[in-house]
Design a protein that fits this description.
Length: about 230
């Protein structure tokens, strides 16, 4: 029940935070089989990393880097598409990813920071769902949490405080789901994450954009540390 609630909250937050048309139909279950392969494909991991990097570069308005990350996404996608299709990911889901790729490219071409970041973060979240089809040393919840943090960032950049509040709810719900794994492996990291979530709630309540940006970086660093810890 907790997993279902966290997922529903995440979808709602993404809808409110600027990925409405792209992720509106994100399926609750991308695989019809539900079986797992031992390892996530390297191309999929590269795709996820490029999507994260493009989100960050677009928000920095670093268009040279954005062009490179968009290129990496396009290079990786045919192999990711082939692999995920073999896992019985629906054709509709794959088409929606391709629409996001197009939006990301258009955003880079127009040098539209928020359009590019929203599309790239949508790709990041899809990558997290695709990764959940495989056994991984790092739980697929990590990229999902990462995407939820960036959803807050994009919403605030747009001045959408209601969307930011909804994205925070999704982030908190996803953290509740993942929390035991993070806590057992590294209690201090879990405590830091808890504290930073409280800081984020306060910053959103005050509509303090600068503080939100600062806490986003703290949360992303928490998740980076947790990813590294869980691969040891």
């Amino acid at each position: 029940m907790k997993k279902a609630l966290a997922f529903i909250l995440l979808l709602f937050a993404l809808f409110a935070a600027g990925c409405q048309s792209s992720l509106r139909e994100l399926p609750q279950r991308l695989s019809q089989k539900g079986d797992h392969s031992p390892w996530a494909p390297e191309d999929l991991l590269s795709f996820e990393k490029a999507a994260e990097d493009l989100t960050d570069a677009a928000l920095r308005e670093d268009w040279a880097s954005s062009q490179e990350y968009a290129r990496r996404l396009q290079v990786a996608w045919p192999r990711v598409k082939e692999e995920t299709a073999s896992r019985q990911v629906t054709e509709g889901s794959l088409l929606r990813v391709e629409k996001l790729l197009q939006k990301a490219e258009e955003g880079v071409r127009k040098e539209d920071s928020l359009e590019t970041a929203a599309a790239a973060n949508g790709l990041n979240l899809y990558a997290g769902h695709f990764l959940s089809l495989y056994e991984m040393s790092v739980p697929a919840a990590i990229p999902m949490l990462d995407g939820a943090v960036r959803s807050i960032q994009v919403a605030v950049r747009k001045g959408d405080w209601e969307g930011a509040q909804a994205a925070l709810g999704a982030l908190d719900g996803a953290w509740i789901q993942f929390h035991p794994a993070g806590w057992v492996k590294k209690p201090e990291a879990g405590k830091r994450m808890d504290g930073h979530l409280d800081e984020m709630a306060a910053a959103i309540e005050k509509k303090d954009e600068a503080q939100v940006e600062a806490v986003v970086q703290k949360l992303l660093e928490d998740l980076k540390d947790m990813r590294q810890e869980l691969t040891r």
